[in-house]
Amino acid sequence: MRRTSTQVIAVVLCVSFVFYPVAPAAAQANQAGQVTAAIPRANIARPAGQLPAELQTPVLWDDLVTTEPRGRVRITLQDASILNVGSESSLRVVKHDATTSETDLVLTYGKMRVKTQKVGAGGHFEVRTNTAVLGVIGSYWYVGSTATQTHVIVYEGVLSIRNINPAILGTQQVFAGQQAFINAGQPPTPPNPPKGNQFQDSVQETEVGENLPPPQPPKPPPVAGGVPTWVWIVSIAGLAAVSVAVPVATQKNKNPITPPPPRRGCRKCD
């Protein structure tokens, strides 16, 4: 009798394990976003193995996204932020929580153009490279990373940058129309306008289709870090003076003053 009862219990346990619903591994992991464009090929590495970064492939927390030569990939995060990753790049999506507005990325090497949504209160959008930490406040920008240098260009909004080594003091705010460099072992360089083809190259090297519109050409920043306010005041005052002077001069030309006839000389003066 005892043997029969033991057999029945064993059968019940086996059946329960067979029919117990097991959630897929992908469903259990936190999803950061998905691939929305890839040319010609990129890869995603995760503990379960490597898979191609094809259209609509989910991107999970801690996924390592790499691109091959001439390869590029676009990742749309859960909060609609867009990451355009250039060729020969390595990006780790450490975390992206749209609910708490917390994002942590690591660009070990390569180039990336980012269009971020506004960061909510108490949240952050942070990108780390080999030499820098970038803090984002709802903006549109570019970052290039090598082993010894980080290059940033801001198209819209503001980017806060500092050296990744906390012992190296100095934080810079980079505004729209500016660029800056963070070299290993040094504080960030003072922001300055992009030179030559730097602006165009940053766009072309991270282009992955048409969903992410190209940024507008850089404009002088209207706040700290750009042209001082007094320059704008003097310029406006100068324009106002010219606008007043031109009509007056024109009016004078319409009614010229006839010069008096020359005076006749006298013998005493001669």
Number of helices: 4
CATH architecture: Sandwich
> How large is the radius of gyration?
32 Å
Terminal-residue CA separation: 157 Å
- N-to-C series of helices and strands: HHEEEEEEEEEEEEEEHH
Overall shape: it is: globular
Class by SSE composition: alpha+beta
Provide the residue-averaged pLDDT: 79
Short structural summary:
About 20% of the residues lie in helices and about 40% in strands. With about 270 residues, it is an alpha+beta fold.
Question: How would you portray this structure in words?
Answer:
The model is unreliable at 11-27, 222-260 and 265-270 (pLDDT under 50). This protein is globular. Strands 1, 2, 3, 4, 5, 6, 7, 8, 9, 10, 11, 12, 13 and 14 form a 14-stranded mixed sheet that branches. The protein is of the alpha+beta class. It contains four helices and 14 strands. The chain has one domain: Jelly Rolls.
Write the layout of secondary structure elements.
Layout: H1 2-19, H2 25-28, E1 31-39, E2 42-46, E3 49-52, E4 58-60, E5 63-67, E6 72-77, E7 82-85, E8 90-97, E9 102-115, E10 124-128, E11 132-145, E12 149-163, E13 171-175, E14 178-183, H3 198-204, H4 229-254
Parallel strand pairs: 9-10
Antiparallel strand pairs: 1-4, 1-6, 2-3, 2-5, 5-8, 6-7, 7-9, 8-9, 9-11, 10-11, 11-12, 12-13, 12-14
